[in-house]
């Protein structure tokens, strides 16, 4: 009986995980399949999983005949996301190093105030920020989508600070004895040892910025500057929805996210598991 329980227990767990995974991946499989169907087959009363006939018509429409070539939306999202990731890693890493490794008066109080800012709802800041951008002439530019997410990211600073605290301070002391400056310690010791945490923050930032719909919708009005989430909204109107191009656009939009997670998965899981040990 014990042997059977030892076998049935893990088997039931694996079967349950497989069922949940199939349920979770089902919508993505349907989206991919629908992107290769003819427009009429996507909403057919007798749906088929496999496209018949198989066509690239929806992708051709995105590139050639859409409201605007979808490649431009992808380009806008790509360069905004890359700039935010690079800037956020630099700013958050420097702030986290100060809170984790330096000793100065009021450090803990300042860090407490920083964490308290997490309690401020994002929606509460939309109106004052929009008014400020209007006065500065920054509406309908990518500035509100790049600079504020870089300089105002409490979670990123908190995440890296918790990871930096797990690195033994003996490394810092040995480097200081050898005459290294704090900047040299930061660049040569802390950052190389913090690749998992940096990768975790990069992946989380990518998903957040790449899928941001509200920001571009509020601050942009020029179609040429729209990002992917807002661009996909062009295929949905009050009268109808172009399901074929919409599915094709959503498929193209999700590919970068999947690739980023696949290549950074090792560092991502390690960073999540190690952050917050201390």
TrEMBL record:
<keyword id="KW-0813">Transport</keyword>
<feature type="domain" description="ABC transmembrane type-1">
    <location>
        <begin position="74"/>
        <end position="264"/>
    </location>
</feature>
<keyword id="KW-1133">Transmembrane helix</keyword>
<feature type="transmembrane region" description="Helical">
    <location>
        <begin position="111"/>
        <end position="133"/>
    </location>
</feature>
<feature type="transmembrane region" description="Helical">
    <location>
        <begin position="243"/>
        <end position="264"/>
    </location>
</feature>
<keyword id="KW-0472">Membrane</keyword>
<feature type="transmembrane region" description="Helical">
    <location>
        <begin position="78"/>
        <end position="99"/>
    </location>
</feature>
<comment type="similarity">
    <text>Belongs to the binding-protein-dependent transport system permease family.</text>
</comment>
<dbReference type="Pfam" id="PF00528">
    <property type="entry name" value="BPD_transp_1"/>
</dbReference>
<feature type="transmembrane region" description="Helical">
    <location>
        <begin position="145"/>
        <end position="164"/>
    </location>
</feature>
<protein>
    <submittedName>
        <fullName>Carbohydrate ABC transporter permease</fullName>
    </submittedName>
</protein>
<feature type="transmembrane region" description="Helical">
    <location>
        <begin position="12"/>
        <end position="32"/>
    </location>
</feature>
<dbReference type="InterPro" id="IPR000515">
    <property type="entry name" value="MetI-like"/>
</dbReference>
<dbReference type="InterPro" id="IPR035906">
    <property type="entry name" value="MetI-like_sf"/>
</dbReference>
<feature type="transmembrane region" description="Helical">
    <location>
        <begin position="185"/>
        <end position="210"/>
    </location>
</feature>
<keyword id="KW-1003">Cell membrane</keyword>
<dbReference type="GO" id="GO:0005886">
    <property type="term" value="C:plasma membrane"/>
</dbReference>
<dbReference type="GO" id="GO:0055085">
    <property type="term" value="P:transmembrane transport"/>
</dbReference>
<keyword id="KW-0812">Transmembrane</keyword>
């Amino acid at each position: 009986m014990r042997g059977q329980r030892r076998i049935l227990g893990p088997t039931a767990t694996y079967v349950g995980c497989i069922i949940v995974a199939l349920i979770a991946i089902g919508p993505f499989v349907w989206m991919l399949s629908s992107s290769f169907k003819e427009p009429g087959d996507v909403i057919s009363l007798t749906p088929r999983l496999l496209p018949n006939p198989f066509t690239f018509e929806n992708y051709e429409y995105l590139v050639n005949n859409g409201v605007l070539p979808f490649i431009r939306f992808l380009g806008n999202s790509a360069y905004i996301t890359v700039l935010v990731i690079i800037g956020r890693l630099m700013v958050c890493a420097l702030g986290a190093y100060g809170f984790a490794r330096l000793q100065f008066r009021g450090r803990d109080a300042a860090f407490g105030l920083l964490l308290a800012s997490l309690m401020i709802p994002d929606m509460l800041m939309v109106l004052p920020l929009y008014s400020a951008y209007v006065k500065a002439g920054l509406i309908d530019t990518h500035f509100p989508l790049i600079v504020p997410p870089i300089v105002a990211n409490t979670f990123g600073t908190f995440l890296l600070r918790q990871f930096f605290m797990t690195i033994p301070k003996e490394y810092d002391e040995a480097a200081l004895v050898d005459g290294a400056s704090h900047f040299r310690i930061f660049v040569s010791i802390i950052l190389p040892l913090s690749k998992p945490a940096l990768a975790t923050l990069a992946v989380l930032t990518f998903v957040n910025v790449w899928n941001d719909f509200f920001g571009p919708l509020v601050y942009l009005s020029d179609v040429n500057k729209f990002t992917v989430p807002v661009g996909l909204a062009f295929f949905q109107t009050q009268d109808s929805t172009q399901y074929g191009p919409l599915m094709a656009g959503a498929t193209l939009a999700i590919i970068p996210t999947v690739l980023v997670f696949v290549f950074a998965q090792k560092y991502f899981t390690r960073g999540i598991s190690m952050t917050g040990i201390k």
